[in-house]
Amino acid sequence: MSTQPPRAAVAERSGRRRDGLVLAVCCLAQFMIVVDASIVNVALPTLASDLGFRQETLQWVTNAYAVVVCGFLLLGGRLADLYGRRRVFLCGAVVFTLASSVGGAATDPAALVVARAFQGLGAAAMAPATLTVLSVTFTEPAARARAFGAWSAVGGSAGTVGVLIGGIITQWLSWRWTLLVNLPVGALLVVAIGWLLPPDERPPRRRPLDLAGAVTATAGLMAAVYGIAASHTHGWTSLRVMGALAAGAVLLSLFLVVQRWFAASPLVPLDVFRNRALASANLVAFFGVAALFSTFYIFTLLLQQVLGYSPLRTGLAYLPLSAGIAFAGWRASTVIPVTGTRPVMLGGLGTACAALLWMSRAGADATYAADLLGPSLLLGLGMGVVLNATSTAATSGLPRERAGLASGLLNTTRQLGTAIGLVALATLAASRAGGATGGEAAPGVLAAGYGDALVGAAGFAALGLLAALAVPARTGRSPH
């Protein structure tokens, strides 16, 4: 009698292994995308001195990446639906890797900023593709929750890991390696995408790209995010900021008109917002990310400017927060299929709100063990489950051909939340210190300003909690 396992069992095990590798590829891409939003931050003073950046232009090393990512995410998600997830994912990885090499070899400020913008373009193609690939690969609710849990844990913790990696690289190597480290990782990613992801299905009838919608949405989002980012330096009443925000408002209004009345195949069919789970989950994601990722900026300043931490010690201080996000995002995958997403969001946002209020009490005499360790861990645990739950809710109950659209919307919402939250919290912090920064203000004054900002972050978490009440008790499976 043959002892060979049945052919069906062998095929099932092989399929599970392949699905696991696909999940690893998507998580690796998401890790690269989020890490590159933060890894350069610690190196900014060093690269500014090396390349001769002026202080008022240095912020665009970060902003060029953020503005382009946010502007092109909707288009990236729709391109994945129209022209194939594998194709768009692969193109994004190639652009991202090549741009990283150019940035690492830059010899002047303009070259570095342009390279960062092209990194953002590659990231805008990859980010929706990663979530889309997962949503169509893992169709069973428990398996999908586990996949989204891993993806959310990696994405949520990557921002804090980027601070640590950036500190290590800057202190022991060169700032250039904060970008050049993407070369081997990106090459591995390109090979893995080509090997593991199945060829794109040929649609029965390829719909035309909504060019007018793509132009107005991309330009409008870029103008809006540019204006929000520039407000921190130039003030809300400056002509540059007001002009950018006005242009963004006009372009986005035109986008809605095009989608509603003129587009034969809209970039964003407005009826998608009739899906209550998608609409409410995006609102939760906006407030949750505004609370979490903006806190990274405030927490870094608290550690370095008030408590005197080095870049490396700052990165190490983020480890409990990062571990909390990773652990909670992973564990949430076992809870969501049982309870649904709404209770998980409510519990996570409530925990995060309490953690931020606790952290806001840290003064100039704070110690890490007594005043920061506990709230850091709680914040990570709370936001880890929220990131998983919003990903699940925002991509459930939609047909396969709209998976890229849902992914692009969610990632765009998160980027907008980060941009608006950061400006809001930075403004709160500066208002207490009277505009003074770093060495200009006493540590106690700075600590008070950062405390106000953390209270503001708790307010964002509370708004997210209210929005979570609108999330359906159960979200449906995606029809296939």
Give your account of this protein's structure.
The protein is mainly alpha-helical. It has one domain: MFS general substrate transporter like domains (Growth Hormone, Chain: A), CATH 1.20.1250. The protein is 79% helix and 0% strand. The protein contains 18 helices and no strands. It has helices at 7-38, 44-51, 55-58, 60-83, 85-104, 109-137, 141-172, 177-180, 182-196, 211-234, 239-262, 276-306, 311-317, 319-339, 341-359, 368-394, 403-433, 443-468. Helix 5 (85-104) packs antiparallel against helix 9 and helix 12 (276-306) packs antiparallel against helix 16. The longest helix has 32 residues, at 7-38. The relative contact order is 0.13. Mean pLDDT is 80; it is low at 476-480.
